[in-house]
Specification:
This protein is mainly alpha-helical and 437 residues long. The protein has helices at residues 4-26, 36-40, 69-75, 87-96, 102-114, 120-127, 135-145, 151-157, 165-192, 207-215, 221-233, 242-251, 257-268, 276-291, 297-309, 327-337, 340-343, 346-365, 376-385, 394-415, 428-436; strands at 54-57, 61-64. It has a domain at 276-385: Cytochrome P450-Terp, domain 2 (Cytochrome p450-Terp, domain 2). Helices cover 60% and strands 2% of the residues. The chain has a two-stranded antiparallel ribbon. Strand 1 (54-57) and strand 2 (61-64) form a beta hairpin. Helix 14 packs across helix 19 (376-385) and helix 16 packs parallel to helix 19 (376-385). The longest helix has 28 residues, at 165-192. The protein is globular and about 65 Å long. The chain binds alpha-fluoro-carboxymethyldethia coenzyme a complex. The site of alpha-fluoro-carboxymethyldethia coenzyme a complex has 22 residues, from loops.
């Protein structure tokens, strides 16, 4: 059985050739215009980034190396006894473009479990943080501190050749992915369950199986399966989203993967991005409180209007690229539909009903280009149903997941020798001058 590194080693030369071809044969080809609206509109719609692992179609949603979410659910190996995609299968696909065998995913699970321990100083560092510090801030601090052991940084100091960048980047990325669950679970324990012992990593379990165990939910197979699906689905969403883009930008300075991903986590911590899943729950619970136990279309519509009229966004709706309901949202909804307890859950019913009513209200409101639910519209509410109610922690789970895409693409950025990212900026005066020319 070929290992992840051996598989990657095999696929890199063809990709390097493809990049060379693009550069030499099509370097001057034009793929779009840059309008003033792109420059002042958060670069929305600008085709300006290379990202091989996934492409987001506005109508179809995400495809990972060409595979849609239902395709992935069919072909990517689950955990033994489970049904849902596991992080290892998704990681393998994102990194190599290939579907792993069950044996390869098991092998990778074992490798990650063996590398899962935190250095003692990171444990003490995280334990010393005030429990009032947001869990995402704690995660970012812990990830940045892990860079003490960066293989990339050490090799760089020793003068490694450019052709060796990717192997050290890969080593760091695998180590970081392996350590994220134990770091994230320690933060959860410290903030919400102080004094609880953390179980040892089980070398026979997959990454998310271990994460669930460390969080104290290992006995709940249904929640563990949900976490597996959640983490696989949030892994990558092409390159321009704020977290993936941040990892890419910081990595382009040859900052090591720990520092690059730490920066990405702080982008994920914003309410317009990953924090939305915590905001959705807060908002749905406030709605529930106001409308009481009767879930009627009218009550929900009124509450939506109240939110909009108070100048707030409806969390969990809209997207920078998507123009249809997010297939990740649909996959999570389908997960709920297959489980009677989830189907009958009050909060899930409220989420589902809201997703039926909100698009028309948002259309009538007339501002958002995409009135449909994104993945955050349901992800946190399902956790709440399971009794995992500490909603300030939800984005941390997203942070464990987004590493799959952001880090695998750092490996590729180094394998392809991508340069420092440095777009050109203009002042408003300079733009006006350009326009008048
Ligand atoms: N509720 C109310 N207004 C909304 C809205 C929503 N859900 N979504 C967009 N709008 C508004 C915008 O605020 C903007 O108003 P403005 O002209 O006064 O500034 C206008 O509609 C046009 O925005 P639009 O082009 O449709 O959306 P953007 O690409 O600028 O922003 C996000 C995309 C996702 C940031 C936006 O839809 C939003 O704020 N949604 C709510 C928060 C959320 O769910 N974020 C998670 C997104 C994602 F899934 C993730 O990263 O995890």
């Amino acid at each position: 059985t070929k290992s992840l590194k051996e598989t990657l080693q095999e696929v890199i030369p063809a990709k390097q050739e493809q990049l060379k071809r693009l550069k030499t044969e099509h370097g001057q080809a034009v793929v779009g215009d840059v309008k003033i609206e792109n420059i002042i509109g958060g670069m929305r719609g600008l085709k300006a980034m290379l990202w091989d692992a996934s492409v987001l179609d506005p109508n179809e949603g995400i495809r990972f190396h060409g595979l849609s979410i239902p395709d992935c659910q069919k072909v990517l190996p689950p955990a033994p006894g489970g049904k849902e995609i596991i992080a290892e299968s998704m990681l393998w696909l994102l990194l190599t473009g290939q579907v792993p065998t069950p044996e390869q995913t098991r092998q990778l699970s074992r490798e990650l479990a063996e590398k899962g321990e935190l250095p003692a100083f990171v444990e003490s560092l995280v334990d010393s943080l005030p429990t009032t510090l947001h869990p995402m801030t704690q995660l970012g601090i812990g990830v940045a501190a892990l860079n003490r052991d960066s293989s990339f940084q050490a090799a760089y100091e020793m003068g490694m050749k450019k052709s060796e960048y990717w192997t050290h980047t890969l080593d760091d990325c695998i180590n970081l992915i392996a350590r994220l669950p134990v770091l994230a679970a320690r933060i959860y324990r410290n903030v919400y369950k102080p004094g609880n012992p953390l179980p040892a990593i089980n070398k026979d379990l997959d990454l998310v199986g271990n994460y669930s165990n460390l969080l104290g939910y290992g006995d709940n197979q249904s929640l563990t399966e949900y976490l597996r699906l959640y983490i696989a689905l949030h892994g990558d969403h092409e390159g321009g989203n704020a977290s993936a883009h941040t990892a890419h930008l910081v990595g382009s300075t040859l900052s090591d993967p720990y520092l690059s991903y730490s920066a990405a986590l702080f982008a994920l911590a914003g309410p317009l991005h990953g924090l939305a899943n915590q905001e959705v729950l807060r908002w749905q619970l406030a709605m529930q409180k106001e409308i009481g136990n009767v879930i009627s279309n009218e009550n929900i519509r009124d509450y939506l209007w109240k939110t909009l009229k108070s100048g707030q966004v409806v969390p969990g709706y809209g997207h920078g690229v998507l123009r249809k309901p997010d297939p990740r949202f649909i996959a999570l909804q389908e997960f709920c539909n297959t489980r009677p307890d989830l189907k009958d859950s009050h909060i899930i019913q409220l989420v589902n009903k809201t997703s039926e009513i909100a698009p028309d209200v948002l259309k009538e409101h007339g501002k958002t280009k995409n009135p449909y639910p994104n993945v955050d519209a349901t992800s946190g509410c399902v956790l709440y149903h399971y009794g995992f109610t500490e909603f300030k922690y939800y984005t941390v789970i997203f942070g464990v997941s987004r590493a799959l895409g952001a880090l695998t693409q750092l490996v590729w950025a180094r394998a392809l020798g991508l340069p420092l990212e440095r777009p050109k900026s203009y002042s408003m005066d300079a733009l006006e001058k350009l326009v008048k020319q």
